């Protein structure tokens, strides 16, 4: 049987008949498949085998499959761009021996392990991506806080006595970030069991700062993670201890820790290297603190003189110089709580006037 198809018709030949002139444009023949589906061929039919059963190919059996006979589980695209396609006979089984329904996209399986629906967990934001239970828990761990349903986004970086991290996973709501590196870097994560740093003594607290920083450095050797400055530790201790530590005293704490730290394991070596590198910066911190105090001392003396002019000798005798920041022209002082009210004045008016008289902004140290 010959089938004709009219592609175009001239206007003067509205109906195709015996006398209609024509020219052959092309001849369409049945397709000849180079790659035949093995199952269709066995059934006496011909169809294009676009897919390959990787199990049959490994066994050197006819492996080509058409769209009707191929089986591709969810997530069947491998990381190298090829498909994990099989015939019906070779659909992979889950570890529980049930027929698998998806390839796990998690970090442990990497689409090389197939699982059934009983072991499937859906990506929180992508409905067509699935993981096995272990991979899901690794990627989206549950928050360790009691009855919290949120995904943990961080882990506790408290260093135990044996040099290991706590590593309890916490969500952003329940993890505490200890901002020892300043406001522009991610602080150390602390879980609800280890956030009470006030229970540690000075040596233990400084050990946490150095050891946790060293562990971060070990995890990412090329990072620029460094120890906080002496001035930063001054504010850390002030907040925790509610009293000010002098810069030389904080430097001594670092020096003592360096003397106690050996090189017996990777953590001790990393801590020792950090402390050795930090020593040169501590010398600059001390010099900076001395220069700032020298600049701030005349301002402080003018403040005491103004207090005596007001007849506040008790306040002038009790006020103590703490720090001076030239960049912000801020004088930090310490004073007993029972004397602060008179110096501050109604609405802060008195302390503002004193600041104008001495030529600097006056601040009370936090926690004092």
Instruction: Please outline the major beta sheet.
Output: 3 strands, mixed
Classify the secondary structure makeup into a structural class. Answer: alpha+beta
> How are helices and strands ordered from N to C?
HEHEEEEEEEHEEEEHHHHHEEHHE
Q: Could you tell me the strand content as a percent range?
A: 5-15%
Number of strands: 15
Distance between the termini: 104 Å
Helix content: 25-40%
Mean pLDDT across all residues, rounded?
Answer: 90
The structural domain count equals: 2
Pick out the low-confidence regions.
Answer: none
Major sheet: arrangement of strands: 13-14-15
- The general outline is elongated
Compile the SSE list and pairings.
Elements: H1 38-42, E1 51-52, H2 54-58, E2 64-65, E3 71-77, E4 83-86, E5 102-103, E6 114-115, E7 121-122, E8 130-131, H3 133-139, E9 154-155, E10 169-170, E11 176-178, E12 188-190, H4 202-219, H5 230-241, H6 247-260, H7 266-309, H8 313-318, E13 320-325, E14 330-334, H9 337-344, H10 349-358, E15 361-364
Parallel strand pairs: 14-15
Antiparallel strand pairs: 1-2, 3-4, 5-6, 7-8, 9-10, 11-12, 13-14
Helix pairs in contact: 4-7, 6-7, 7-10
């Amino acid at each position: 049987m010959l089938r004709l198809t009219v592609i175009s018709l001239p206007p003067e030949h509205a109906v195709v008949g015996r006398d209609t002139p024509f020219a052959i444009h092309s001849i369409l023949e049945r397709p000849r498949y180079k790659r035949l589906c093995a199952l269709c061929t066995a059934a006496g039919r011909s169809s294009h085998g676009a897919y390959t059963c990787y199990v049959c190919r490994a066994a050197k059996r006819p492996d080509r499959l058409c769209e009707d006979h191929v089986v591709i589980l969810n997530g069947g695209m491998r990381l190298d761009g090829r498909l994990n396609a099989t015939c019906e006979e070779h659909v992979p089984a889950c570890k529980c021996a049930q027929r698998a329904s998806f390839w796990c996209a998690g970090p442990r399986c990497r689409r090389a392990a197939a699982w059934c629906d009983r072991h499937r967990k859906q990506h929180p934001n992508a409905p067509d991506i699935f993981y096995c239970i272990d991979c899901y828990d690794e990627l989206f761990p549950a928050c360790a806080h009691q009855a919290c349903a949120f995904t943990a986004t961080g882990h506790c970086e408290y260093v135990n006595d044996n040099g290991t991290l706590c590593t309890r996973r916490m969500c952003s709501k329940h993890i505490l970030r200890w901002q020892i590196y300043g406001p522009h870097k991610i602080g150390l994560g602390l879980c609800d069991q280890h956030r009470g740093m006030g229970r540690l003594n000075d040596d233990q607290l400084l050990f946490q700062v150095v050891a946790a920083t060293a562990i971060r450095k070990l995890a990412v050797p090329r990072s620029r993670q460094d120890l906080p400055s002496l001035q930063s530790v001054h504010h850390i201790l002030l907040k925790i201890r509610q009293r000010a530590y002098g810069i030389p005293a904080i430097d001594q704490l670092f020096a003592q820790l360096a003397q106690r730290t050996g090189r017996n394991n990777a953590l001790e070596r990393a801590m020792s290297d950090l402390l050795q590198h930090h020593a040169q910066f501590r010398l600059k911190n001390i010099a900076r603190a001395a220069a700032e105090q020298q600049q701030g001392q005349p301002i402080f003396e003018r403040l005491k003189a103004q207090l005596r002019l007001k007849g506040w000798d008790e306040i002038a005798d009790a006020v103590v110089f703490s720090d001076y920041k030239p960049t912000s022209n801020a004088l930090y002082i310490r004073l007993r709580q029972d004397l602060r009210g008179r110096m501050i004045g109604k609405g802060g008016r008195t302390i503002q006037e004193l600041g104008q008289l001495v030529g600097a902004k006056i601040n009370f140290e936090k926690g004092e």
